[in-house]
Every structure is written in structure tokens, then in C-alpha cells.
Amino acid sequence: MRHMPVLAEVMTAFPVHVDEQMPLVKAAEVMREHGCHHLPVMDDANQVVGLLTTEELRLAETPGHSIEDAGELTAGDLCRRQLKQVDLHTRLDVVLMGMADQGINAVLVLKQDKLAGILT
Question: Which residue among 17, 25, 39, 80 sits deepest, i.e. has the most Cβ atoms within 10 Å of its Cβ?
């Protein structure tokens, strides 16, 4: 049988992330600058509290308005709070099956409860 990689071998390590109090406009800028579609959102204790995606940014844009019109919204206001978190030693096939079953397109990868990477 061939080797099945674990997440540590295929994830994007140390992904860019933002604080939950960051204005949504600035978080959108970070996503554009780094070319990412999924942005982990952290609290003051450096714990992951959510995941901001380009889908949420599109939802924030009402017809005829841009993300810059989102006013006082923060990354924490708009991020998904229910997200899949897995250990970096989990086998890739297990994670991919879980993602397919749950209909999700990203998981956060943790090492000892700290953000280590992301798999999209």
C-alpha cells in the first residue's frame, strides 16, 4: 500500500490570519494582498474563533455597494464561527472524506490547539 500523507505534508503552513477586531475593509485588503480566499480570524488570546471567506465578503456587499461601504463591521462580525478543526497528524484521506461528507471547502489545521495551517 502506498503512503497516505498527513495534513502536515500538504497544508498551507502558518497561514496569514487577522484579529477579530480588524475592520472588515482591512481584512478584505489582507485577503487581496495575499491572494487567499480563506482567512483565519483570531481572538486576543491568539485562539482561532472563525474563518472569513470571500463568500462572506460577497454577502456583505449589498447591491450597488462595495465592501468599503460595510461601515463598522469587523472580521469577527462576519466570519464563520462553526468551522472544522483537525490535528496536523490526521491522514489526508480522512480529512477529505469528512470535508466531502460535510460539504465544506476548508479546514483549519491545529497543533496542540494552536493554528498551524489550513487546507482548502
Answer: 39
pTM (two decimals): 0.85
DSSP assigned state of 82: S
- C-alpha dist (Å) from residue 22 to 8, 18, 25, 26: 28, 7, 8, 7
Q: What angle do CA 80, 81, 85 make, to 5 degrees?
A: 100
CA–CA distance, 32 with 93 (Å, rounded to integer): 30
CATH, residue 49? 3.10.580.10
Taking a C-beta distance cutoff of 8 angstroms, is the pair 15, 118 a contact? Answer: yes
| Number of other CB atoms surrounding residue 46 within 10 Å | 10
pLDDT in tens, 83-94: 899 999 999 999
